[in-house]
Write a structure and sequence with these properties.
Layout: H1 6-24, H2 37-43, E1 52-66, E2 72-82, E3 90-100, E4 124-131, E5 137-148, E6 161-167, E7 170-176, E8 181-187, E9 191-198, E10 201-208, E11 214-227, H3 232-243
Length: about 250
């Protein structure tokens, strides 16, 4: 029979401790619970790095279309959201539309077609150009400006609204209903130029079915960040959001 010496026992314990630790490293601590993905989706976006939060959010959309016959269409809008007055932002919306008459007959576009209906189902950022013609120019451009601190831009527009103009078979429309903003230029039989911002999607689309067209979309997003210590309502909102997280708080370790 073999008798283990004290040195052998100590060595066995030293070898066993790392193995035991490796087995328990992956186990959650007492009082912690895994947060499921649906709940994480509701919490994402509530926090910003460095203790800053969005104090003002502004969007500018401008769409232009010049046809080969000399007709000009333009739709523009500015949308501002001020988050410094509490949990509900103060919204200002200012639309603008304009159409000038064509100085020549409209071209015949029979037999040409484009289809962008699938873009309505795309989430995220969308930019699309569809052309069925010759000598056309089309461009989509997006810009994002982020500033830290500074004065909050003022706004004198309405909270929601719509502005539109029609001339012959051409139309220009700008609208904001509180949840979605859109700029749409359209000429029957020749296509459409549009921009939009709605839940889960920001997009620009140009569809042309004639020759010698010039169309463009420009979208600019401005974000003004402000330190939470200088903004009590925002600080209170974030503090309330933190209390909604499960598994962190007084219950940990008890």
């Amino acid at each position: 029979m073999n008798i283990a010496t004290p040195g052998c026992i100590a060595l066995a314990l030293m070898l066993a401790i790392p193995a035991h630790a490796a087995e328990t490293d992956g186990k959650p601590g007492k009082g912690l619970q895994e947060i499921p993905d649906p709940e994480l989706n509701l919490m994402r976006g509530r926090y910003t790095v460095g203790g800053n939060a969005v104090a003002w959010f502004g969007v500018t959309m401008i769409s232009t279309w010049q046809t080969a016959t000399g007709q000009n269409l333009q739709g523009a809008m500015t949308l501002g959201m001020d988050f410094t007055q509490g949990s509900t932002p103060k919204v200002s919306f200012t639309p603008s539309v304009n159409i000038t008459a064509a100085n020549a007959p409209l071209p015949d576009t029979a037999g040409r077609s484009v289809d962008g209906s699938g873009l309505q189902n795309v989430a995220g950022l969308v930019q699309s150009v569809q052309v069925a013609g010759d000598d056309n120019r089309a461009s989509n451009a997006m810009h994002l400006n982020v500033r830290d601190g500074g004065p909050i831009p003022g706004g004198s527009g309405t909270s929601t609204g719509q502005s539109e103009m029609h001339q012959g078979n051409a139309s220009a429309q700008v609208s904001f209903d509180g949840s979605a903003a859109k700029v749409l230029l359209q000429i029957d039989g020749q296509g459409a130029v549009q921009q939009w911002m709605r839940s889960g999607s920001v997009g620009q689309s140009i569809q042309l079915m004639a020759d010698g067209q010039q169309a463009g979309n420009r979208l600019q997003i401005d974000l003004l960040r402000q330190s939470l210590v200088d903004n009590l309502p925002l600080a209170q909102n974030v503090a309330q959001a933190i209390t909604l997280t499960r598994g962190f708080g007084p219950g940990v370790g008890q």
